[in-house]
Amino acid sequence: MTARTDSIPATPTPFTVGIVLDPGGPLPPDTAPALRFDRAYWAGLVHAAEGGGYDQVLFAGSSAGAAPGLDPVLLASALAPAAERIALVPEVITGVLEPFHLAAAVQTLDHLSRGRAGWLVRPGPAGAGGVREDIEDASETIAASRLLFDSWEEDAEIRDVATGRYIDRDRVHRVDYRGSRFTILGPSYVPRSPQGSPPLFIRVPALSDAEAAGRLARAERDFALEYADTIILDATSGAHPEHTLRALREAGATRIVIEVVPPSGPEAVSALAERALRWHRDGVTGILLRPTILPGGPADLDTRLLAELWGLGLPPTHGRSTPSLRALLGLQPARNAFAEARLAKVGTHGE
């Protein structure tokens, strides 16, 4: 067992910092409502976040009481070509878009962002079966989407004009997914994207001991533990995340980021930076800031916390060579189940 120390390791894992923007969230007072539908407004925020040192922008899905807003996946796709370094992670609500088309949309975003896309899955919307049924539906959606991501092998495209061959049919696969809610034959109509399988984020709330013991809380936590590449621990309600963080770590979670409301004054910024340092020592790999009101423009995007974090010695990601979001998060390159099966079959026949 490694002894705990109060110092940051000599070769630490980068500590990512992201911002969560809700297309349907409230705008500052006296702001024109049409601003939320202005592409230049969103592009300005993304460029300001990128220039200020943020590693990723998450676009939140619609929530109760939110104003009508732009679709997070389509918004991220519109902004991706102009972004140079920052990762773009839209929230998708399962049960709204068919899994086949959802997978294609995520793959498209990964192509447009040149391998800097992720997706945040939220089970829902709550139907007659309630939250448990939503989680089951989300589980099937993720499983089917990941098969669709793999349905084109990396070298499936030939594009040989001389022979008239566009693809190698042996490297494009039907997924034949049969779940309890839907069936997908496949393959995807989008070729394999740069990351193969864009990183998946799932959010869980910070809970007290009593709340965490409930069956529903355990179901949400188990869902995240099984499917997420990175778990977002939501502490925006003001609840202390330490208990849930400890439970997730004990259950085997290795990549956890904590989501909080941005601090307001200089003292609050310093206090949050100190807490982030303690979280990092407890295995947290990043922090997300979720403002309650959308910035009025690029100049209103606060970057004070990043300077505080770096000043305390937390390892920044800027300046590192991170060609993909998977690399930024420390994930291994995505495997392809169909390619592995094909190669295994070829190897067996060759013996």
Task: Describe the protein's architecture and organization.
- The chain is an alpha/beta fold and 351 residues long.
- It has one domain: TIM Barrel (Alpha-Beta Barrel), CATH 3.20.20.
- It contains 11 helices and 12 strands.
- The strands form 3 sheets. Strands 1-2-3-4-9-10-11-12 form an 8-stranded parallel beta barrel, surrounded by 4 helices.
- Helix 2 runs parallel beside helix 3 (99-112), helix 4 (130-150) packs parallel to helix 6 and helix 8 crosses helix 9 (304-311).
- The longest helix is centred in the middle third of the chain and has 21 residues, at 130-150.
- The N and C termini lie far apart (44 Å).
- Residues 1-11 have low confidence and may be disordered.
Write the layout of secondary structure elements.
Elements: E1 16-21, H1 39-51, E2 56-59, H2 72-79, E3 87-93, H3 99-112, E4 119-122, H4 130-150, E5 157-160, E6 165-167, E7 177-178, E8 183-184, E9 200-205, H5 209-212, H6 215-227, E10 230-234, H7 242-250, E11 256-260, H8 266-281, E12 286-289, H9 304-311, H10 325-328, H11 337-350
Parallel strand pairs: 1-2, 1-12, 2-3, 3-4, 4-9, 9-10, 10-11, 11-12
Antiparallel strand pairs: 5-6, 7-8
